[in-house]
Every structure is written in structure tokens, then in C-alpha cells.
Amino acid sequence: MMSGIKGNKCAIVIRRLILWVILTNIILVLYCLTNSSQGKNRGSQQSTCALSVAELLKKNVSMPSESTKSQGCSPKVNIMFMKTHKTASSTILNILFRFGEKHKLKFALPNGRNDFFYPSPFLCSQVKDYRLGDCFNIVCNHMRFDHREVAKLLPPDAAYITILRDPVALFESSFHYYHRAVPLTWRIDGENKLAEFLNNPQSFYSADAFNSFYLRNMLFFDFGLDNNLEADDPRVMRDIRNLSKRFDLVLFAEYFEESLVLLKDTLCWTTEDILYFKLNARRSSSVSHLTPELRARALQWNGADWRLYQHFNATFWARVETYGKDRMKQEVNELRRRNSEMRDICIEDGGAVEAHKIQDARFLPWQPVGESSILGYNIRKNIDPNFRKICEKMLTPEIQYLSDLGVNLWLTRLWGWLKDAVFIV
Ligand SMILES: Nc1ncnc2c1ncn2[C@@H]1O[C@H](COP(=O)(O)OS(=O)(=O)O)[C@@H](OP(=O)(O)O)[C@H]1O
Q1: Which atom of ligand 1 has the smallest separation from the CA of 281?
Q2: Residue 393 belongs to what domain range?
Q3: Is the CB of 174 under 6 A from ligand 1?
Q4: Ligand 1 neighbourhood includes 163 CB (under 6 angstroms)
Q5: Which of 5, 267, 312, 341 has its CA 20 to 30 Å from the CA of residue 276?
Q6: pTM score, two decimals?
Q7: Number of structural domains found in the chain
Q8: How confident is the model at residue 350 (pLDDT cuts 50, 70, 90)?
Q9: Where in this chain does the entry annotate a coiled-coil region (predicted)?
Q10: What SS3 class is residue 379?
Q11: Eight-class DSSP state of 45
Q12: Quick check: is 235 in a domain?
């Protein structure tokens, strides 16, 4: 009887494995085909966003609300948001999508999927319907950053913004979210794979292995830099200094509200523009709590990211100082009050719920391979009709929002369908 059950289980695992290998190969072939066709354009992408086109773009924009004019500045509409992984970037993305839609701004959107062919370096030709000289207001989807390529899409006055997160929290989140997509982690034994890995990372890690960048200095990788540099390599600080020349504002997941207040100030926006619900959060039971020793190991392993984080953390607080600490406190309180009002208006039972409890598929977030750990929301049943639209938009996850913006996500959907077929959760 027991050996029968074991045999059955074994057969299921083998069947899944075979299916997984076949499906992954199909995806890889499709990926290579699409990737190589867009790669061919590389040599021809010399032209930048022409000034005349940028002027034309300005005319089509419905200018943001009167209220900011009283601040003596005019709202910025040209924005590059470098969407880093696992840093609360989806919550910022939702803010940008809403702002862009409201003011009829032109997004540079990905084509066929939700990112710009990540982890390949960014190319203009990856933008949906891109033609030489095209100008856009907002670029904000996942990419591997390449400043020169991005600059071709945007008017010269564009604000460059990004978000960072404590490298330990980021590593923990990424390790959990991507572990089934990173073959290097499959052979880690034991209950606590994260601890096993951190106790001896070099024995599991290989820089050349498939998807290895999810395991080390992911911020460095996302910014188009070498994520395998040791923290004391002089190139690390050189790269950080170069990045600080590129970016006008660096936000922090840990100081999310303060970050939004600085965003509002930098872009001359209103508090209404920065209202948000926390998106893409994991259920708490999926979060591994690291001992101080493991935390130290994680920091050492992600040493380049730690230097990056420390550098911008210092500049962030210097900026808060200039902004005014009391003023910041007041603004954060106001933002909290307005967010809490929106929660009462929009969200059934006031908070996030497990994926299986989400009643409307429009609000179901994308889940990692093999599990449903990402929380989402139910929209209030008896919602005030005046707030229905704004609530729907605030609650819409990245994939569905991209679809609403007109992106045909066939590759993402195919991948989603395959992962769900192999791992029924
Ligand atoms: N407002 C706010 N403040 C602080 N932290 C936040 C916020 N919004 C999202 N999060 C946390 O960010 C993690 C998801 O990051 P991303 O949206 O960038 O992920 S993704 O790369 O787009 O998949 C995810 O972290 P983990 O839960 O640790 O995985 C979210 O909980």
C-alpha cells in the first residue's frame, strides 16, 4: 500500500518534471525568437527623442490640476522610473500609471510581456510600436537599465527616479519569489534553504548559471552593472557615483511615505497624485526571519548593493533635512490620513487578503511559480459610485493594468498558463 502511494507520487513528480522541461524549452525558444528579432534593430537605433516631437507631445498632455500651480511650480510629466525588483516598485508603478492615464501622457510600454525583455539590457526597439525619433512621457516597466538607450526615448528635462530596499529584505524576498526559477537553488537541502544558502553561498552559486542574478546584488544587476563585484572593488563606488549623476531622486521602500512626499515635491504633484495601496505584498507566513548572524551574511553576500543602499540612504536623509523635518512629518501624516480614507472607501474588510479569497480576477496579482503567496484586495461591495473608477485603478495589479493600457501580454500569459499547468496550487 505504502509503496503504491510512493510510486504514484514519484510518477507525478517525474511527469511534472518532464512537462516542466518541455514547457521551459518552448518558452526559451519563443523568447529567443522574439529577442533576436528585436536585437536586430540595435545598430539602427541612433536617433534620440527629437525636440520637435517632444514639443508636440507637450501640447497633447492635459496639464495637471490647478492646485499645484499655487506651489509656484509646474507639474513634471516626463519621467523615467527605473523599476527595480522586489522593492515596492509595483506600488510606485500603479501611482505612475494613474497619473499618466489621468493626464493622457504617452507611456513607453513593453511588447508582448510586462517587462523590456529583462534580463537583457534595455533597447529602445523593445518598446511597443517604437519608431526612430519617437518621444514618450513615461518609461516605468522592469528593465535592465541602460542610460544611453533610455535617454533616446525621453525629452531632456525628464526626471529620473528609482527605488531601493534594504538588500537583506530584498534578497529574502527575491530568494522566496524566484527560487523555483533559479535552478541553482534546487539542490539546496533542508527546511531552511535560505539559511543553508547564506551559510555557504559560494558552494551553491555560479555567476554563469541560468537566472543567477536573482541571488546576488540584484539592485546592481537591475541598474545594468556587474552584480558579481566584491564590495571593496573600486568599480563599485565608481558605478554608484555614476548612478547618482543619472538619478534625480532615489526612493526607499523602508521610508515609503517620506519617499512619496519627496516625489511629490520633486515633480510638483499633489497629495492626491501619490495616494496608494500597498501592492504585491507576501503573506507574513512566507517571510523568513533572519537571525542577526544570517543578516550579516546576507549583507556581506550582497555587499555591492549594501554600498549602493548606504550611499543613497545618506543622500535621502540630507534631502529630508533640506525639505524640513517638521514639514515632512506633517506631509506624511496628511498622506496617511488620505490613504486611510481611501482604504475605507475602496477596500472590503479594510485590508489585503490571500489570493484564493480574491473574488474578482481583475484584482488578482501575479503569483510566483508553484505557490499563491502574494496578497491582493477585494473592492468594496457597496462602493460609492463616485469612487468606483479610482478605487478600481488603485487596486489593479501591474499585469491587468498593462493590459488596460493596451499591451498584448501574450508571452506573460503563456508563461502564466504553463506555470499553473505544471504547478497546480
Ligand atoms: N508601500 C510599501 N512599503 C514597503 N514595502 C512594500 C510596499 N509595497 C510593497 N512592498 C513590498 O515590496 C515587495 C514587492 O516589490 P515589487 O512590487 O517591487 O516586486 S516586483 O519586482 O514587481 O515583483 C514586497 O515585499 P515582500 O512581501 O517582502 O516580498 C512587498 O511587501
Answers
A1: 31
A2: 48-62+72-422
A3: no
A4: no
A5: 312
A6: 0.90
A7: 2
A8: very high
A9: none
A10: strand
A11: T
A12: yes
